[in-house]
Write a structure and sequence with these properties.
This protein is an alpha/beta fold. It has one domain: Alpha/Beta hydrolase fold, catalytic domain (Rossmann fold). The protein contains ten helices and twelve strands. Helix 2 crosses helix 10.
């Protein structure tokens, strides 16, 4: 296994950051978070097999790993990372490049989870860390914790995908939107896994006895053919279902958020991460 960590001195050129001849475009929030005087969030690179993985990390002992949703980036966690700086050592990383081409060949869920684990180890995480996941990353986090319980000391699931969410939201969505969603779940995604298959794995997985927080947004999409109230209730139900298998568990509504509480209410998400980290620390004493 080839794992190596590097940091790069970045200089800004317009809206891009340049290092070592490579140019990477960052969203404006990311550029602000990495400026001098901002909380210490560092951009680092690790090599995992043939992939170079970009991560954003705070200082301190490694305690929290953050997984973005389908098609996301580490940058969506910047607001949360800035609030964790000085309290918790945390990293969020891009899975961009894991999938390869535009029509990736499917791989099994176990192979995918092993790649996640190798990335975590390359970033300095060994055992007893808290795994945070948004949307599809939340579904991955549940399966990861169930299959590697000795690695994970707690979970924070932010608007997590769920194996029953598609079924329960059907009556609140336009038929064409629902059909598109269903078809997308049946083919390999950017991570080269089929969401429907890993969802079935989640259905049969047993949650380890660790602290778990589920954060649920309460502001749903509206428009012709959409029923936000129905969608709110469907999300609440499936997220409560997760906690029925978790002990101890906590369900937190994000009252000013839709599907992205880590962007809309980073303070709330950071507070829940700190709480779960504190509980995991106490359990190790």
């Amino acid at each position: 296994m080839n794992t190596a960590m590097t940091t790069r001195p970045w200089r800004r050129v317009g809206h891009a950051f340049v290092a070592g001849g490579a140019t990477v475009l960052l969203i404006v929030a990311g550029a602000g978070a990495l400026r001098a005087g901002a909380p210490a969030v560092h951009e680092i690179y690790v090599h995992v097999g043939e992939h170079e993985v970009r991560a954003l990390c705070t200082d301190g002992p490694r305690e929290v790993v953050m997984l973005h949703g389908d098609g996301g980036r580490a940058d969506e966690w910047l607001g949360v990372l800035r609030r964790l700086d000085g309290e918790v050592g945390a990293c969020a990383y891009d899975r961009a490049g894991f999938g390869g081409d535009d029509h990736p060949a499917e791989r099994g869920w176990y192979e995918f989870l092993d790649e996640l684990r190798r990335t975590h180890v390359a970033l300095g995480f060994q055992r007893d860390y808290v795994l945070v996941g948004h949307e599809l990353g939340g579904l991955y986090a549940r399966v990861y914790a169930a299959d590697r319980p000795s690695d994970i000391a707690g979970l924070v699931l932010v608007e997590p995908a769920h194996e029953d969410l598609l079924r329960r939201m059907r009556l609140g969505m336009p038929p064409e939107e629902w059909s598109t969603w269903k078809a997308r779940r049946e083919r390999p995604n950017a991570d080269r896994v089929v969401e429907a298959k890993i969802a079935e794995r989640a259905r049969t997985s047993r949650m380890p006895s660790i602290p778990v927080t589920v954060v649920t947004g309460t502001i749903r999409r509206s428009g012709p053919g959409w029923d936000p109230r129905f969608l709110d209730e469907a999300a609440r139900q499936v997220h409560e279902d997760i906690l029925r298998g978790a002990e101890p568990g906590r369900h937190v509504p994000a009252s000013r958020s839709g599907s992205d509480p880590q962007l809309d209410q980073p303070d709330l998400v950071a507070d829940e991460i700190v709480r779960v980290v504190g509980a995991s620390r106490r359990s190790r004493r």
